[in-house]
Design a protein that fits this description.
The complex is a heterodimer. By secondary structure, chain A is mainly alpha-helical. By secondary structure, chain B is α/β, with parallel strands linked by helices. In chain B, strand 6, helix 5 and strand 7 form a beta-alpha-beta unit. Chain B has a domain of about 200 residues: 2-enoyl-CoA Hydratase, Chain A, domain 1 (Alpha-Beta Complex). In chain B, helix 3 packs parallel to helix 4. Chain B has eleven helices and 13 strands. The longest helix of chain B is centred in the middle third of the chain and has 25 residues. In chain B, the strands form three sheets. In chain B, strands 1, 4, 6, 7, 8, 10, 11 and 12 form an eight-stranded mixed beta sheet that branches. In chain B, strands 5-13-9 form a three-stranded antiparallel beta sheet. Chain B has a two-stranded parallel ribbon with strand order 2-3. The chains are: A mainly alpha, B alpha/beta. At the A-B interface, helix 3, helix 4 and helix 5 of A face helix 1, helix 2 and helix 11 of B.
Chain lengths: ~240, ~300
């Protein structure tokens, strides 16, 4: 069982480092796209050279975005495997619940967003684009609700993961993990709040970077500690079960 | 320190609910400039600008096949919007039309007249303000014409196209069975008789008399006979003869509208546009439901002749 836990902690560590990488790249993309928007908005006349530059940057951002999505999915899958290992270690049933929530939350979020976006599009098609139609209609005609619903459902996975990691930190006495979990949950909450205050998304991203860095280090130490304890009885709450 | 399983779940759910509450509040606080429905008019007073461009005709009219159209129904809806909105203190009609069908022009004239009885209306003639288009400008408090515009062409004409000789050359015979002698008046399959020509002329003059009376009611003309020949005028000529009140730009028309509406000189101008068709309507082809073009054109039109183009 302890072997499963070691495996799980190792996977969770790897997932945290991939997420850290994704967050860092996201920050770079955010900066790049903000700069790009500024260029496009401020320029009255854009030369062919500038337009080509803008197009190349947009293409780069899209490519980057695609890569980030793939990396995020990889981190998600590794994290599911990690929680699966932790679940099989039979420390707590809550970790198994966490694994289920981590699996289901992004799927449900994606399905909800897809369903709501389709419904919003149908509504838009049915009601028509009125004479005064602007891009802001998109936000008022259901797309915002879809985005927020998706964000909240996806947040469930992060919350369960955060709380489980907090508990793991207490269990393994690696308090860095507990601290990381608090930062992680705070980042999730701030990310949701950034719907109305856009600059908070940067704060959320920075907190997420910090949380994932702490997670990575914390899981690593927890794993090391566990490995060293496998060979000797430990006074910690980690109770080796029969055959463990 | 160890937390029980139940406590962990409760903590997770509590945090989740707290975040959901944050999301709810965040949506409520969503930036006003993005969340504000765009159809809401600005709270400040403004000058409503309505453009009347192209041929004046109903959207189902055969005339619509000739280019862009100002449909009286959609223009009437915009006028109603401007009249009903207390913040719209004055209306500027930006006219660029050579005229259109007699019925549509008449319809629009009455709508503008109604609006002008409720709010100050200024008509601005951008390029063409002739015939039916001039008729709809008549109820305005003032008519301003652009320096290079064409105004006037007060009159009515009716065109009957026949191609009986062409059909004869092609060896095509058309048999028309009719209940009365004049039932197929204006038919393209035969020549117009003298009696029919006189009758149609009588109708044209009848329509013209109505138009003429309207012009005389609204304008003090210096040389009415010249105006009623149906000739077009340049903006300067139109001003001299009394067809317009001024020669200037759209800004001048807006400035005048602000004065008439009691608005400050920096009061905003808001263009009212007709609603766009829904995507479903476009997909279902509802917007292009026009009558098929038929060869016989029996349209009573107040149109300037094509050679009027400068």
């Amino acid at each position: 069982m302890a072997v499963e836990a070691v495996k799980g902690l190792g996977r969770l560590r790897n997932a945290a480092f991939i997420r850290l990488f994704v967050d860092l790249l996201s920050l770079a993309v955010l900066q790049l796209s903000t700069g790009l928007m500024g260029t496009v908005q401020l320029s009255d006349e854009v030369s062919i050279g500038e337009a080509a530059g803008v197009l190349a940057t947009v293409a780069g951002i899209l490519l980057f975005g695609l890569f980030l999505i793939v990396a995020s999915i990889a981190a998600w899958v590794i994290s599911i495997l990690g929680w699966g290992n932790i679940c099989r270690a039979k420390w707590r049933k809550f970790y198994c619940v966490t694994r289920v929530v981590v699996i289901l939350a992004p799927i449900l979020a994606a399905l909800t967003v897809a369903a709501m976006v389709v419904s919003a599009f149908l509504e838009l098609f049915a009601t028509g684009l009125r004479g005064e139609f602007t891009g802001s209609d998109v936000f008022t005609s259901g797309f915002l609700k879809a985005f927020v619903a998706g964000l909240v459902i996806a947040a469930a996975g992060r919350i369960f993961e955060g709380v489980a990691t907090f508990d793991l930190g207490l269990l393994t006495q690696v308090y860095l993990l507990a601290a990381a979990a608090v930062v992680y949950i705070a980042s999730t909450a701030i990310n949701v709040a950034s719907i109305s205050v856009t600059w908070l998304s940067v704060v959320s991203l920075i907190l997420s970077i910090l949380a994932n860095l702490l997670f990575g280090i914390g899981y690593h130490y927890a794993r090391k500690r566990l490995m060293s304890q496998i060979w000797q009885p430990i006074p910690s709450p980690v109770q080796p079960t029969q055959g463990g | 320190m160890r937390l029980s399983e139940v406590k962990l779940v409760v903590i997770s759910l509590t945090i989740f609910l707290a975040i959901a509450a944050i999301a709810f509040v965040a949506v409520q606080q969503f930036p006003a400039h993005l969340a504000q429905p765009p159809t809401v008019l600005p709270t400040g007073d403004y000058v409503a600008l309505i453009k009347i461009e192209g041929t004046i005709a109903y959207s189902t009219s055969q005339l619509t096949l000739l280019g862009s159209v100002s449909d009286p129904e959609s223009i009437a809806a915009l006028l109603k919007r401007a009249v009903d909105d207390p913040a719209a203190k004055a209306i500027v009609l930006c006219i660029d039309s050579p005229g259109g069908s007699a019925a549509a022009s008449e319809d629009l004239y009455l709508k503008v007249k109604d609006a002008a009885s409720k709010k100050p209306v200024v008509a601005y003639i951008r390029e063409y303000g002739t015939s039916g288009a001039y008729m709809i400008a008549l109820p305005a408090k003032a008519i301003i014409a652009s320096n290079s515009s064409m105004v006037g062409s007060v009159g009515v004409y009716l065109s009957v196209l026949t191609y009986s000789e062409l059909l004869e050359k092609l060896g095509i015979k058309v048999y028309v069975i009719k209940s009365g002698e004049l039932k197929d008046i204006g038919s393209p399959y035969r020549k117009l008789t003298q009696q029919e020509a006189e009758m149609l002329e009588e109708m044209v003059l009848d329509y013209f008399e109505l138009f003429k009376q309207r012009v005389l009611n609204h304008r003090s003309l210096k040389n009415p006979d010249e105006v009623f020949t149906g000739r077009p005028f340049t903006a300067k000529q139109a001003l001299r003869i009394g067809l317009v009140d001024g020669v200037g730009s759209l800004d001048d028309a807006v400035r005048l509208a602000r004065q008439l509406g009691g608005l400050p000189p920096d009061a905003p101008v808001r263009e009212l546009k007709p609603p766009r068709p829904s995507l479903f309507q476009i997909l279902l082809g509802e917007t292009s439901a026009k009558k098929p073009m038929v060869p016989s054109i029996e349209v009573l039109a107040v149109w300037p002749p094509p050679f009027l183009e400068p």
